Amino acid sequence: MNRQIVKLFGLVMALFAVLIGFTSYWAVFEAKALKEKDANKRPLLEQQRIERGRILTADGTVIARSVSKGRGANKRYVRRYPEGALYGHPIGYSFVREGDSEFEQFHNDELIGNESEFASIVDELLGHQQKGNDIVTNIDSNAQRVALSALESAGFGAVVAIEPSSGEVKVLASNPPFDPNRVPFELTELNQNEIEAPLFNRATQGQYPPGSTFKVVTAAAGLDSGAITAETPIDAPGSLEVEGTALENDFGQDFFGATLDTALTNSVNTWFGQLGQQLGNDTMFEYMERFGFNSIPPIDLPEDEVSPSGVFFEEELLDHNDPVDLARMAIGQERLAVTPLQMTMVTAAVANEGRLMKPQIWNRVIDPDGRVTDRLDPSEYSQPIDEETAAELTTAMEGVVSSGTGTNAAIPGVAVAGKTGTAETPGNEACGGGVDENQAWFIGFAPADDPEIAIAATVECTEQFGNDVAAPIFREVAEAILDEG
């Protein structure tokens, strides 16, 4: 009888241990994941009672703040966005019924003062009122305003600006924007607006053909791998048959014996097409991945709101084992789709002597007593190319602006390095299915000899070229940042 009781007791204890294990797993180890689920509103309901911290630009402009409603036990806090649509992207929104997004979601724990679950429990037991921390971002308020204004004049698109040496994100603008103050009243309409898609952050989620801006990646792979030097000549005829279809230069112009400077300055398709074929799949994909392609960029935004860049087939990323048209991939065609953030990362790496820093929007966290409790420590994400390769690319990219396809990006008295891109997108349903639409690009950095800012600007569904519409946006944003330096 005693033996049976012991067995029964052991079984009960085992079942109890399993129950405790599962409870602990969901309550502790999976607590963060549960909180992040859009369907789980309980954390947001609880957070109504917490004065959420402010979000500010680098110069102290308040982007987001909380205001109180009601009194006593009924007191609640509601989010307000004083600058309206200017920072809808990348800051996002945070409301009880509608959930949260973008920067608000990623930095939720700091903004509600949840440094740790245990600290929050202790505060509650001691009767302390939990209060959120302020977060100061790296965003340059003037440059952000200039970027969005320029985009609104040009068309749908995006601008990203990063300080190459630190990875600090100075501008992240997406047009059309949205006013987060309107989310509680218009979320359904915003979600259903498929034409403008204002909630879609084109800077981090938009995947576009890069056109000739990708030639910077191809050139980097060629130089850094040792396949070519800056002085290696390649005969580039006006037309070259590749995969049964003609690959052509603008106006069918021949560039026999051209070196890198000439090829990049004049954006010679057949030169880069042949270089891509020479490099092969393994080398091309290796250098793409060094720059961050085929991965989610490491920016402080939710992963489901940041898209990877690369070569796609039916929404799946291809790698070096898959057959691709290397000549067309090398000039930014084939099935390449890239985000403005990714192309800014490429540009920033070249500007920073080959070192790619982790892009970050946040700069520091300030507690309710005014103390800085955490500060951005810039970190290297990768080193795609060496310093010599970066210097050679910079020289070639300067030629693009001084005498090539990107002259509209020139800034008086400042050396600018850059590259234009114009990807033809005929039949694009997002553009209405016309035959003359392009994806226009400009990527670049300035000053070329001591880079302070790297920028990518792109405009959708335009009949203009990169130099016509994207290069002027680059210039305006770069000038706004450099004038403050």
Describe, in plain words, how this protein is organized in 3D.
With 485 residues, this protein is α+β, with helices and mostly antiparallel strands. It has three domains: 35 residues; 96 residues, Penicillin-binding protein 2a (Domain 2) (Alpha-Beta Complex); 329 residues, DD-peptidase/beta-lactamase superfamily (Beta-lactamase), CATH 3.40.710.10. It is 36% helix and 21% strand. The protein has 16 helices and 22 strands. Strands 3-2-1-6-17-18 form a six-stranded mixed β-sheet, with no helix packed on it. A five-stranded antiparallel β-sheet has the order 8-7-22-21-20. The longest helix is centred in the first third of the chain and has 28 residues. The model has no long low-confidence stretch (mean pLDDT 91).
Short description:
This protein has 485 residues and is an alpha+beta fold.
| Cα Rg | 26 Å
Q: Which class of the largest domain in CATH terms?
A: Alpha Beta
Biggest sheet details: 6 strands, mixed
How many domains make up the 3D coordinates? 3
Low-confidence stretches: none
Secondary structure: number of strands: 22
Q: Give me the CATH fold name of the largest domain.
A: Beta-lactamase
* CATH architecture label of the largest domain: 3-Layer(aba) Sandwich
How many helices in DSSP terms? 16
User: What is the helix fraction of residues, given as a range?
Assistant: 25-40%
How do the strands of the widest beta sheet line up side by side? 3-2-1-6-17-18
CATH level-4 homologous superfamily of the largest domain:
DD-peptidase/beta-lactamase superfamily
Give the overall shape.
Answer: globular
- Kindly estimate the percentage of residues that lie in beta strands according to DSSP: 15-25%
Distance between the termini: 86 Å
Quaternary structure of the protein: single chain
What would you call the structural class? Answer: alpha+beta
Mean of the pLDDT scores? 91
